[in-house]
Amino acid sequence: MKHLSEEDLVLLYYDEPGVAEGSKTALVHLAECADCRVAAESLAQTLDVCNEWSPPAADAELGRTVWARLAPQLDRRPAASTRRFWLMAAAVAALVVAAFFAGRSSSRPAPAITAGLSESARERILSIALADHLDRAQLLLTEVANMNDSDAAEFAASRARAKDLVNEGRLLQQVMLSQASGSEPLLDEVGRFMLEVANAPDSVNEGEIQDLKQRIDAESLLFKVRIIETNLRTQNAGTSGKMS
Amino acid sequence: MDARGELAIEEELTIKKAQRGDHDAFRSLVERHTQAVFRLAWRITGNTIDAEDMVQETFLRAWKQLGKFDGRAAFGTWVHRIAANCSLDHIRSRKGKMDGVDDPLEHLAHGGPSPERLAQSGEITGLLIPALDELTEMERAAFILRHYEGMPILEISRVLGVETGAAKHSVFRAVQKLRRALEPAVSGLR
Predict the structure, then answer these.
(1) What confidence tier does B117 reach under pLDDT thresholds 50, 70, 90?
(2) Which residues are CB-contacts of A52 (< 8 A; sequence separation ≥ 6)?
(3) Buried residues in B68-85 as b, exposed as e (16+ CB within 10 A)
(4) Do A16 and B152 touch (CB under 8 A)?
(5) pLDDT tens digits, B131-164
(6) Residue A43 touches partner B, C-beta closer than 8 Å
(7) CB atoms inside a 10 Å sphere around CB B157
(8) Residues 47..76 of B with a Cβ closer than 8 Å to A: which?
């Protein structure tokens, strides 16, 4: 084998990913060739001394200072991804149409909006809508699981969100009647929990919060939601990668 | 679950809250990542005032783009990408403004060390800083991202918006130039 180039040595020094096969051959050569070893050591010595250049310690309060200047410039809510918006818009449109037709004869032809989509596109839209639903459910479950007595006053906001999740979950379940995804039992479980939160009294007491927390623990709800949501996200990211 | 896993889940939830417009959640992300963003911005811009401005600009951009963050990369990596781009945009605009204009900073850089540079100690840093200044902005950024941030070349090419080959050659050229500049001091260490 010919001697290693400086570029080879730089890639080896940084243990650059994606050159593993080449690295093996290069490492074998390096072990056998004294000239290349000297060159590698010389390069390493030079690059190692670059580590002596370190930034000054930033002001310990920099995070707070930055926030103080930043906060007045922030909108109420960050902009949503445009791509995600269109995907969600398509999902909502498909779900609404599907829900409408679910109550009518199944022998009717599929509406144009769903007929225009391939099977895989429908599955993907459903999968994204489901992941987003579980994402919102996960957030609410986490909040309830971490609630303490002093948070009881904020429970009204959680109830409103739980009510939205109940409606959203029902819509998703209707679509799943015709398109099984394997997540129906979990969706059902989450729906029952959210219904309980949605129907909780205005002045929820500590005991009732404890009951809800115990239900989350006993049914491992949060854990299950997190796993399924992560799987869906991974699956969607993979599909997205293949599509792009 | 280990502490690292719990931290990752906690950060994921914080991000989701911030994506829904929760300013407190975003504040916690800002405070958590400020120091690392500062270090990167300082290395690219070369001074503390610009670096602090870049930290603020980075998080402002991050807020505006938060809806696009899909969790495929770690939040820290994503913010680093934004910080690298902000800092590069900044030095490009600084250079643009100074083109054809007498640049007092340029005189400082070549005529003698600034107070900040004087504060750097040792012969190596004394040679390294001017050598870094001699690199093109692409070479400097590529080297900093590779050497100090540990970013793979593929990722560097995405951050800098260039082909992988171009990013790789920027790193190689930077290393060559730095070796030439540092060689006298390094050979003295042998």
Answers:
(1) very low
(2) B122, B124, B125, B128
(3) ebeeeeebeebbbbbbbb
(4) yes
(5) 988 898 889 999 999 999 888 998 888 888 788 8
(6) yes
(7) 19
(8) 48, 51-52, 55-56, 59-60, 63-68, 70-72
Give just the sign of the alpha carbon dihedral A92, A95, A100, A103.
Answer: negative
Cα–Cα distances in angstroms (integers) from residue A81 to residues A42, A59, A85, B16, B76, in the given order: 48, 34, 6, 14, 19
Q: A25 at the B interface (CB within 8 A)?
A: no
Q: Which residues touch B15 (CB under 8 Å, ≥6 apart)? A: B25, B29, B66, B69, B71, B75
Query: In A, which residues are within 8 Å of B48 by CB distance?
Result: 56, 58
Please identify which residue in the block is written with the tokens 């623990």.
A217
Complete domains list, chain B, with CATH: 1-101 (1.10.1740.10), 103-190 (1.10.10.10)
Of B63, B72, B147, nearest to A50 by CB-CB distance is B147
B78 near B69, Cβ under 8 Å?
Answer: yes
Show which of residues 94-113 on chain B sit within 8 Å of chain A, judged by CB atoms.
none
Angstrom distance (rounded) from CA B110 to CA B134 = 10
**pLDDT above 90 as % of chain A:** 6
Least confident of A30-34, A187-191, A231-235, B130-134: A231-235
DSSP string, B77-139: HHHHHHHHHHHHHHHHHHHHHHTTS--HHHHHHHHS--HHHHHS-SHHHHHHHHHHHHS-HHH
Contact A76/B at CB under 8 A = yes
Question: A63 to chain B: which residues are within 8 Å by CB?
Answer: 30-32, 34-35
pTM of the model: 0.57
Distance from C-alpha of A205 to C-alpha of A109, rounded to nearest angstrom: 51
CA dihedral B144, B149, B154, B156 (to 10 degrees): -40
Q: Which residues of B touch A67 (CB under 8 A)?
A: 27, 30-31
Between these two residues, B84 and A23, which has the higher pLDDT value? B84
Angle made by CA atoms A153, A158, A162, in degrees to the nearest 5: 150
8 A C-beta contact, residue B55 and residue B34: yes
Longest CA pairwise span in chain B (Å):
59
In this predicted model, what pLDDT tens digit does every residue of A196-216 receive, in sequence order? 888 887 677 777 888 888 888
Asked if ipTM goes beyond 0.85, one says: no
**How far, in Å, are B105, B108, B115, B122 from residue B102 at the CA level?**
9, 12, 20, 30
